[in-house]
Write a structure and sequence with these properties.
Elements lengths: L1 H17 L10 H9 L8 E9 L5 E8 L2 E4 L11 E9 L2 H5 L1 E8 L2 E8 L8 E8 L6 E8 L2 E4 L5 E9 L2 E2 L3 E10 L2 E16 L2 E20 L2 E5 L5 E9 L2 E3 L4 E6 L2 E6 L4 E9 L2 E5 L1
Length: 291
């Protein structure tokens, strides 16, 4: 009985795709008119590019993206927006209707600027992506960047900026972070950090970072399920250190006064131990190098 139902379902799907379930043949003039009338006719990927500058006394810039990369950069001699935030957006879509329903929203909320990809319509109408290149002026204190499917990159922004970065499918690469929260479900994380709080984690991907300094009483938490961890840290790091790998070795060059040491577990203290550094991975090697 189950096999018979399966055969009927497969046959019905085949008839639909061959056009027999409709009153007009697939690929015929009626079908072409059907697509044209709804602005679904394909003629290659559509692309729109727009650049603008937004003025304001912003201290926080937040970018939210669904499908597409986010590239955030600081001012350079050839690319300095002054006190404005530069927004370069590239939209791509399969159909004119999808392009029309793909928008970039820019909202000023006091000292916060929100830049967001938005769609109108259903699933087919959402078949488009936006890639952002954001140029920040000096004086920004906080960066928030979130993408569902795309990489997040922060470069050349100067030191001492709090950063909250996340992506589900994509990598994260950042520098100049003071307090950093970086997370990826499927992708690697790379960072340069100097501050009081670091939280970097990924489910599937490696983590590589440079801890230039850790404030007194600060905390470092680095976690990955499937991937190795490589960190560079100063020998004068004042912290209790815990390194744990379920399936993988551990190598540490820091002058650690060990309190517990096994093949895949190392705990100890550097200095007075005012801060804390926890590094864990389920499947991968942990390597801590001395700066």
């Amino acid at each position: 009985m189950g096999a018979m139902v399966l055969v009927v379902v497969i046959a019905s799907i085949a008839l639909i795709f061959r056009g027999r379930a409709f009153s007009f043949p697939a690929g015929g003039p009626e079908m072409k008119r059907f697509w044209n009338e709804r602005s679904f006719q394909r003629g290659g990927w559509l692309r729109e590019e727009k650049e603008e500058q937004v003025s304001g006394d912003f201290t926080t810039v937040e970018i939210r993206n669904i499908a597409g990369g986010i590239d955030i950069q600081g001012p350079t001699p050839g690319n300095d927006t002054g006190s404005n935030v530069g927004i370069h957006a590239v939209k791509t879509a399969m159909f004119p209707a999808a392009m029309e329903n793909l928008n970039v929203a820019i909202e000023k909320r006091g000292d916060r600027l929100l830049i967001e990809e938005r769609h109108a319509g259903g699933f087919v109408m959402s078949a488009g992506t936006v890639s952002f290149v954001i140029t920040l002026p000096r004086g920004i204190k906080t960066i928030e960047a979130h993408s569902v499917s795309g990489s997040v990159t922060v470069r050349g922004v100067g030191a001492g900026i709090d950063q909250n970065l996340s992506t589900i499918s994509g990598s994260i690469e950042t520098s100049g972070a003071r307090n950093l929260d970086a997370s990826s479900t499927s992708g690697s994380v790379q960072f340069v950090f100097a501050g009081s709080r670091l939280d970097a984690h990924t489910v599937s991907g490696s983590i590589d970072g440079r801890i230039e300094s850790l404030d007194q009483g600060g905390s470092v938490s680095v976690r990955t399920v499937s991937g190795g961890v490589g960190l560079d840290a100063p020998s004068g790091l004042d912290a209790v250190v815990s390194l744990h790998s379920v399936s993988g070795g551990i190598s540490c060059e820091l002058p650690l006064a060990a309190t517990e040491q096994r093949r895949n577990w190392l705990e100890g203290r550097i200095g007075s131990g005012s801060g804390r550094m926890d590094v864990t991975t389920t499947s991968g090697q942990i390597t801590v190098r001395k700066l």
